[in-house]
Amino acid sequence: MTDRLKADVAAGGGLLRDNDGIARPHYWGHRERLRTRFLEGGHAPMPEYELLELLLFNAIGKIDVKPLAKRLLATFGDLNGVIAASEHRIMQVDGADRWVYLQLRLVDAFAQRMAQAKVLRREVLSSWDALIAYCRTCMAHRETEQFRVLFLDRKNTMIADEALGSGTVGHVPVYPREVAKRALELNASAIIMVHNHPSGDPTPSSDDIKMTGRVMMACEAIDVTVHDHVVIGMEAEVSFRTAGLM
User: Fold this and answer.
1) SS3 of 46, please?
2) I need a surface site. Which of 49, 59, 99, 234 has the fewest CB within 10 A?
3) Nearest-angstrom CA–CA distance, 5 and 101
4) pLDDT tens for each residue of 84-126
């Protein structure tokens, strides 16, 4: 812990004396006031750093967490970026520790579970917007590429969603034989492939197109339909089928 973050200097804000001459941290009562505002007025009127403060209250006691909240947002751009950031990068931010990272992972887990509940065990082709929203929640702000496969039964109900590959900022290894093997293990009748582009641009690369063709050939051999391959970007996504790439 740096000197600037010690409780006796109130995270840089110093100590103030009240009318009774008692020295208190400058943020005295701030946590309760912020909680009350949230409960009474909801999250809509609150800036992102205050919402992040509320979360950080659970990870760090006593000191003022507003500076840390603002440093996290400055480092990662917005709440999406903060929640999706890796442990390594979070720990590089002055004042962050494993308890901060835990709170962020919990929020991410809740978001993914809530989005997944709208598509799991449901016919996904008629719930396409919910499916894309789920994929964006899981992948849009990741710092590295991830390849996921959504496995469907004969009614196009999603029976499983699995990450079958993680890679670097610009590449993720995909093994068509492993995709086909897993489809057989799950008794799936169809799949939808999804991967993200950390650059933010969802335009499929030539490697993406070639890989899609290889997976389609592997799945055709075992009578599994490939409905689509979706590339998730920061603000948009590209469907191979809609784009005429398959």
Assistant:
1) coil
2) 99
3) 17
4) 888 999 999 999 999 999 999 999 889 888 888 777 777 777 8
Residue 130 has which token pair?
A: 């919910």
Dihedral of CA 125/183/134/157: which sign?
A: positive
Is residue 170 a contact partner of residue 199, using CB atoms and an 8 Å limit?
Answer: yes
Q: How far is residue 182's CA from residue 188's CA, in Å, rounded to a whole number?
A: 8
Rg (CA), the chain: 23
Residue 126: predicted pLDDT: 80
- Which residues pair with residue 152 across a beta bridge? 158, 190
* CB proximity list for 143: less than 8 A, separation 6 or greater: 84, 85, 86, 89, 169, 198
Q: What is the pLDDT of residue 11?
A: 45
Contact 226, 216 (CB under 8 A): yes
Its pTM surpasses 0.90: no
Tell me the pLDDT tens digit for each residue of 165-179: 776 655 678 889 999
Tell me: pLDDT of 51 over 90: yes
- Between CA 160 and CA 186 the distance in angstroms is 8
Nearest to 52 by CA among 104, 115, 2: 104
The percent of residues above 70 in pLDDT, for the chain, comes to 86
Strand partners, 17: 23
